Give the backbone structure.
Amino acid sequence: MARALRIEYPNAYYHVTCRGNEKAPIFLNDRDRNKILELLEESCENFQVEVHCYVLMSNHFHLLVKTPLANLSRFMQQFNTAYTVNFNKMHQRVGHLFQGRYKSIVVDADSYLKELSRYIHLNPIRIKKLKSSTIDEKIHLLNTYPWSSYLDYIGSRKRHSFLNPGFLLSLFGRTNREAYRNYSAFVLKGISGQIRNPFEEIKAGTVLGDDDFTRNIYIKYMDKKVGEREHSRLNEAIPPLEIDKIVKEVAEVFNVPPETLLKRRSGPVEARQVLIEYCLRYLIKYMTLQEIGLRLGGIGPSAFKMNRIRLQKKLLDNQLLKEQMEIIREGILSD
């Protein structure tokens, strides 16, 4: 099975989960839980990662983190390894503790951070044995459950030093008291009300965001991840681009009339080469080579290969062309 696509960039937000191997417990007592929080604090300091929410369950945990240094993989590898070594030593066991690698989803913070934090904080009441419990019983459990960041978000205890609740709380009120009260009401509404489930909107098992955010992620990582299964799934998840959008961006950067770019042997050669390259990259998922070729003045499939070879040679020693292509990529992403 192919590994999950890892998307890393500065200041990215992620929902991260780790589960016990064969669904076995990863915490056997409160000492284990305190230890993982201690190691989480050390790892955050070492890698400058921000934890915005967390919850520890019996056989898994959830984190909502931000990575200013684009280093989620290194952070999680060190953190999970440190906890596994400690757990095995304390409980006289050997072997894997977690079920494979961690699972991460890159998150559009502008659209999904609030709902995702609520999902994480409601985990303690989602277990089967509480299914028939009353609302009051569930509220009591949430308000007394010590192994999540919810108590920090409602001001019920001194927060852990590694936790960064400030940004999320700022979305719920101007003062701490107002934010604590409104955030509590927001989370508790999820016990009895019909609320948005953010995980129903994940695209390709990798991205939680709207169409523009997903397209942005896809285009940023397309060149590096061609051929991977998860890349292909993400490809299918994004909304289609129009050829007119690509033509417009190329024409603006090269300062040429858009209509000339669609004709064979017309306009600046480099502008035409860039247009063909970007049409190939971003239209191939829903148009055939023949269809794209017809829109570009009737070029054949072999022309795409030759165009890419010639363009790559030019990019070896043409910094201006590289910069122009990057500007065009950013334009393609924009509304």
